[in-house]
Specification:
There is one protein chain. It is built from 8 helices and 12 strands. By secondary structure, it is of the alpha/beta class. The longest helix is centred in the middle third of the chain and has 14 residues.
């Protein structure tokens, strides 16, 4: 794949560029919004990885809105230290296809980039996730299963979103700690088990079939039975 990275932090940029190239991708890099917009608008890329906060008079949201106004449908993964729900919604509404908060694990970034490319350029911004009869609206933050509304706490929502984005894959404890709790170490607590149990009470227990499965000695997997 040919990927454009627009990121002003030299440490993050070096880390991402090195990892993507080692994974076999061609990577171009810009460290400011103005040059990044020029490159994104004038060259063909399979995916754009775009930092939310950028120098050069054009931040990530403005860059993204400009691209979409030009009918540029290249999939865009937003990177940001801003993890609040309102910030994520703003990024998606501006035309982002996915949103990853800093700090992040490179394995997750790579998986998300490859997933965006598989979906293709014609799909437009992703605003909903669907696994079996379970549906998540990323804009309204609503969740329904078999048409029935399910109320989730913010952490439960984030946990379910992570599982849905990795549907059909084994999600390890480490992946959940990094992707949902932003821990880059194991605090040796049962926080994951407690939240998965609570989520099962809402997602699985009221329905005839289970979606959240325990994979012995590995982690969890979200998939229809």
């Amino acid at each position: 794949m040919r990927i454009l990275l627009v990121e002003d932090d030299p440490t993050v940029a070096q880390f991402v560029v090195k990892g993507l190239r080692e994974a076999g991708h061609v990577v171009e890099h810009s460290d400011n919004g103005r040059d990044g917009l020029f490159m994104a608008a004038s060259e063909a890329f399979d995916t754009i990885i775009l930092d939310r906060m950028l120098p050069g008079g054009i931040d990530g949201i403005r860059l993204l809105e400009t691209l979409r106004s030009q009918n540029n449908a290249t999939p865009v993964l937003l990177l940001s230290a801003l993890a609040q729900v309102d910030e994520r919604v703003a990024g998606l509404k501006a035309g982002g296809d996915d949103y990853l908060t800093k700090p992040f694990a490179f394995s997750e970034l790579l998986a998300r980039v490859e997933a965006l490319t598989r979906r293709g350029k014609s799909d437009g911004p992703q605003t909903k996730l669907l696994v079996g009869d379970l549906e998540m609206d990323l804009l309204s933050r609503g969740v329904r299963r078999a048409g029935q509304k399910i109320d989730l706490q913010p952490r439960e929502f984030r946990l379910l979103e992570y599982l849905m984005r990795h549907a059909g894959q084994v999600v390890t404890r480490t992946m959940l700690l990094e992707g949902v709790w932003d821990y880059h170490f194991d605090p040796q607590t049962n926080v994951i088990d407690v939240h998965v149990s609570r989520l099962r009470q809402k997602i699985d227990k009221p329905f005839p079939s289970s979606l959240i499965h325990t994979i012995r000695n590995a982690g969890y997997m979200l998939r229809p039975e």
